[in-house]
Design goal:
241 residues; alpha/beta; nine-stranded mixed beta sheet; two-stranded antiparallel ribbon; 11 strands; 24% strand; binds adenosine-5'-triphosphate; binds magnesium ion
Length: 241
């Protein structure tokens, strides 16, 4: 069993600076512009969390809250087959792993809220090893029907999600789309979009950006790591450094 309290990303430099990968018990935010690779990253993490322990995974269930219907099981299988060909060609393995990943697509803010409450129960009763919320921006940007005052309910959602992480001691990964293209400005944009409460709730922030045709990932907030920047790309096997 993985006792280090991290979900390894298998992105070598990143796991090193994060002291093992995505930390259990806290919120990790992936922030960056549209198309940069946040969802691709989340799909890779989902695979890694569901991978059998004998192959270095967490052999757990994953709850993937797919707010914008951008999750693709076809693409996830492609990433799996390309990243772990030996494992994925074992009979029944692709189905077994896909079966561990529960994708929720709440159609409204009310149902998003309700699914958070159900998740709380699932986290305790089942072997859930990763919760993904992709994306938080969509939850607050008014894509859902207009509800009660947004800031008030946002504060409630943030506290609830953070307490999920602490309570269940699993990693929670949340994406946040921002318009800015500059890696140094992105944290400010994220701050403007979701506010100070959100900013404080996030323990680790990874900022993704594109610059002159290349993609970069920066550890923008972390209690342990320096603000390092890594180039990365996206291939058939998903995110790679
Ligand atoms: P949004 O904020 O709009 O949700 P995102 O950050 O989640 O954006 P992703 O959907 O993760 O963005 O990334 C999409 C990008 O991933 C595509 O633009 C493409 O460059 C890359 N990509 C997707 N599939 C493949 C593939 N099979 N091979 C190579 N690159 C791919
Ligand atoms: Mg996305």
């Amino acid at each position: 069993e993985n006792l280090s309290g991290h979900l390894p990303t298998r992105l070598k430099g990143l796991d090193e600076v994060l002291c093992g990968g995505i930390r259990f018990g806290v919120l990790t935010e992936l922030v960056g512009p549209a198309g940069i690779g946040k969802t691709q990253f989340c799909m890779k993490l989902s695979l890694l969390a569901s991978l059998p322990t004998k192959f270095g995974g967490l052999e757990g269930r994953v709850i993937y809250v797919d707010v914008e219907s951008k999750f693709s099981s076809r693409r996830m299988i492609e990433i799996g087959v390309s990243s772990f060909p030996d494992i994925f060609h074992m009979e029944g393995m692709a189905q077994e792993m896909a079966g561990r990943i529960l994708v929720l697509q709440p159609p409204s803010l009310a149902e998003f809220t309700e699914s958070l409450q159900q998740i709380k129960v699932s986290l305790l009763q089942h072997q859930v090893k990763l919760l993904v919320i992709d994306s938080m921006t969509a939850v607050v940007s008014g894509e859902f029907e207009q509800g009660p005052p947004r800031q008030h309910s946002l504060g409630w959602h943030i506290s609830f999600i953070k307490s999920h992480a602490e309570f269940s001691r699993i990693p929670i990964v949340v994406t946040n789309q921002v318009r800015s293209q500059s890696i140094d400005e992105i944290p400010q944009y994220a701050f403007q979009a979701l506010g100070i409460h959100w900013s404080h709730a996030v323990t680790i922030r990874l900022v993704l950006e594109a610059k002159s045709g290349e993609r970069f990932m920066k550890v923008a907030k972390s209690p342990i790591s320096p603000p390092l920047v890594f180039p990365f790309n996206i291939t058939s096997s998903g995110i790679s450094l």
